[in-house]
Amino acid sequence: MSSETSAADAVTDVLEKAGVHELPFAIRFWDGSELSPESPVSLTVLVNSPDAAARLLREPNQLGLGRAWVSGEIEIDGDINEIFALREQFAGLKVGWRGRLAALAHARRLGILSGSFRQSIPESEAHLQGRTHSLGRDSNAISHHYDVSNDFYRLVLGPSMVYSCAYFSSPGDTLEDAQERKLDRICRKLALEPGDRLLDIGCGWGSMILHAAGNYGVRAVGVTLSEEQAALGRARIREAGLSDRCEIRLTDYRSIDDGPYDKISSIGMYEHVGRDMLGRYVDKVRSLLRPGGLFLNHGITRLHSEPGESKSFIARYVFPDGELHPIDALATTLKNAGMELRDVESMREHYVLTLRQWVENLAANRDAAIAAAGVERERIWRLYMAGSADAFERGTFRYFRRSRRCLANRWDYPSIEPT
């Protein structure tokens, strides 16, 4: 190709060497050139800067693409969900050594490698230090995701401030009604009774303990590692007049030593535990639960056990050190700890609806979200929530509630299925 090669010409050459002769979307580049399929399309990827190409040359993976997205060097003109719908189509794409050499040659001609090859890393990228899942590192990982801005989360989650799957009776339900239904369903699965001592591990902004104390008369303790969550949760408790029955502690679940509790819930928290720590997590829960008590674990699973990818978008920008496990891994760990499985419920379709409403909330409040948490965070949440909704819709992710009971007084078990 000549020295007048455009960015579109360069990308076309690399794609053809990879066996791709037409894309199902258009790409418009910083130099004004465009790569368009013959048939009309509704989606255009905007590559706004040569820095995006430089990032991908340096990190030809999710990390390079994620850095370009977070920095605003790549944008989507159209429905972002259409990108994820094409995931399977490109899952096996390999550029190969000929394509890589061609990409480097074109990059030199286009001046991409001159001076801007080592761009700054976005401020919101996580770089944790210390031993994985140590107390200090876990605290930093939680802070990275949750100590963003309470105002930001309120814009996305709505007044309920529940950051987990809602429970819909129909797709037309409001998010608030569906979240209240979910909290009440958890309370009924736990068979909460007045005077019960409830522990909520990873309590967020206190929505579960507020609902349980206000509607079921329990004495509730919630624990979180997020300072912002604890501050707002405590304020919500005071406003509800439930300070005599609710308490939020800023501590790691591993540091709790005032059991036993009658009931324990863990809602959207065990994804932060780590596969190697599942045994310790379950053993700690069992040690805090009275004989015959109930434990409800409400979390995301995946179909297959896969090692964590340190350079994935989720690992660097959303949930550092987070891990998803197949359901059988947790079930086996619980069984080995001497706990009896009493109830399993899949909520995958409910999480699709939940995430779609969060995405809509963010879109409707984009300017306010940027003012609260910054441009990078808004872009991160926009991408990760849309991608997560797609993963649940396709069944890559699953959402389960499991109720377990300590093996004791088995003749005295009440039903735990809500009526």
Describe the SSE topology:
Elements: H1 7-17, E1 26-29, E2 34-35, E3 44-47, H2 50-58, H3 62-70, E4 74-77, H4 81-85, H5 96-109, H6 135-146, H7 150-157, H8 175-189, E5 197-201, H9 207-216, E6 219-224, H10 227-240, E7 246-250, E8 261-267, H11 278-288, E9 289-302, H12 313-318, H13 327-336, E10 339-346, H14 348-364, H15 366-373, H16 375-394, E11 397-406
Parallel strand pairs: 1-3, 5-6, 5-8, 6-7, 8-9
Antiparallel strand pairs: 1-2, 3-4, 9-11, 10-11
Helix pairs in contact: 1-5, 2-3, 7-15, 8-9, 14-16, 15-16
Q: How would you describe this structure to a colleague?
A:
Strands 7-6-5-8-9-11-10 form a seven-stranded mixed β-sheet, with helices on both faces. Strands 2-1-3-4 form a four-stranded mixed β-sheet. The protein has helices at residues 7-17, 50-58, 62-70, 81-85, 96-109, 135-146, 150-157, 175-189, 207-216, 227-240, 278-288, 313-318, 327-336, 348-364, 366-373, 375-394; strands spanning 26-29, 34-35, 44-47, 74-77, 197-201, 219-224, 246-250, 261-267, 289-302, 339-346, 397-406. It has two domains: 7-109, Nonspecific Lipid-transfer Protein, Chain A; 135-412, Rossmann fold (3-Layer(aba) Sandwich). The protein is an alpha/beta fold and 419 residues long. Mean pLDDT is 90; it is low at 407-419. It has 16 helices and eleven strands. α10 links the parallel β6 (219-224) and β7. α14 packs antiparallel against α16. It is 43% helix and 16% strand.
Shape descriptor = elongated
Largest sheet: 7 strands, mixed
Return the CATH class of the largest domain.
Alpha Beta
Q: Radius of gyration in whole Å, from Cα?
A: 24 Å
Query: Any idea of the CATH topology of the largest domain?
Result: Rossmann fold
Tally of contiguous helical segments: 16
What spatial order of strands do you see in the largest sheet?
A: 7-6-5-8-9-11-10
β-sheet strand percentage = 15-25%
Q: If you average the pLDDT, what whole number results?
A: 90
- First-to-last CA distance: 71 Å
Number of domains: 2
Label the CATH architecture of the largest domain: 3-Layer(aba) Sandwich
CATH homology superfamily of the largest domain: Vaccinia Virus protein VP39
What share of the residues lie within helices? 40-55%
Computed structural class: alpha/beta
